């Protein structure tokens, strides 16, 4: 599991975020962006954040460090904004913490990353089927002269169907990816080169280690997946299967 810190003080909401993530100070002296378990999007987006960030790291895409953060009841006590107060109250307990990158600004395309860095991010998004990286909503931060990928909650959307449909790794493996609106498509280099390296890096063992980072209580059992062990194995099966079938989803090589 990821290490856990304790929230001490609520600092400010990040208003650009639809889920209204908050900045908090914690007992490790760190400042963290907190993504709430009680936000409208549900706990599965936090599961996707952890798994996709783990894959990103394995292929060399920069993502802020993740931890879990325990939020006490009294954190909402001095918060005047009612919407934030509701969110905090609904999220007492374990939430996701992402290292706050001070002074980072949203990527606007004016200083593109090297073609191979762009290709790695495009590959990542195609692999996990994350369509949430467009000029309108880049979900990329420029910080320390480098590009950092954030906000991966829209990836691995297949898990949202698990309560109603029997999980099917083949279905996900064959799912196409429309890269036409991807913010880095115009500047991306060879995606097939990234894929070759990723096939060596993203092993079943690596994936099992990444899904082990997800807390048990965020893995929601269904009729088909009665416990955390079964759910973790199903994530690994989906990702292993898709890695084998790039013909279905791998974007064409760019420059
Ligand atoms: N680690 C970070 N360091 C600094 N700023 C951040 C960090 N994470 C997020 N932000 C800022 O907060 C904004 C919202 O974050 P994020 O996109 O993760 O939230 P969200 O609620 O999932 O967003 P969306 O509206 O795309 O659903 C970002 O666009 C960025 O400006
Ligand atoms: Mg976002």
Automatic annotation (TrEMBL):
Domain HipA-like kinase, first and last residues per copy: 16-249
Pfam families, per the entry: HipA_2
Highest taxon above the source species: Bacteria
Protein name, UniProt field: HipA-like kinase domain-containing protein
């Amino acid at each position: 599991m990821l290490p856990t810190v304790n929230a001490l003080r609520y600092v400010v909401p990040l208003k650009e975020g639809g889920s209204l993530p908050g900045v908090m100070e914690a007992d490790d002296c760190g400042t963290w962006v907190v993504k709430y378990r009680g936000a409208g999007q549900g706990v599965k987006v936090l599961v996707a954040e952890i798994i996709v960030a783990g894959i990103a790291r394995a292929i060399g895409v920069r993502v802020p460090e993740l931890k879990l953060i325990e939020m006490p009841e009294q954190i909402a006590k001095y918060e005047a904004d009612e919407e934030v107060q509701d969110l905090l109250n609904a999220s007492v307990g374990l939430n996701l913490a992402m290292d706050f990158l001070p002074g980072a600004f949203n990527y606007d395309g004016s200083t593109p990353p090297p073609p191979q860095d762009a290709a790695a991010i495009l590959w990542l998004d195609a692999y996990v089927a994350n369509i949430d990286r467009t000029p309108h909503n880049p979900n990329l931060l420029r910080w320390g002269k480098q590009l950092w990928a954030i906000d991966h909650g829209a990836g691995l959307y297949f898990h949202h169907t698990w309560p109603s449909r029997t999980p099917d790794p083949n279905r996900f493996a064959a799912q196409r990816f429309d890269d036409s609106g991807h913010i880095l498509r115009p500047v991306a280099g060879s995606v097939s080169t990234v894929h070759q390296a990723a096939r060596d890096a993203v092993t079943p063992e690596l994936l099992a280690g990444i899904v082990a980072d997800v807390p048990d209580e965020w893995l929601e059992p269904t009729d088909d997946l009665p416990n955390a062990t079964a759910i973790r194995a199903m994530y690994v099966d989906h990702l292993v299967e898709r890695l084998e079938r790039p013909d279905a989803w791998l974007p064409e090589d760019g420059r």
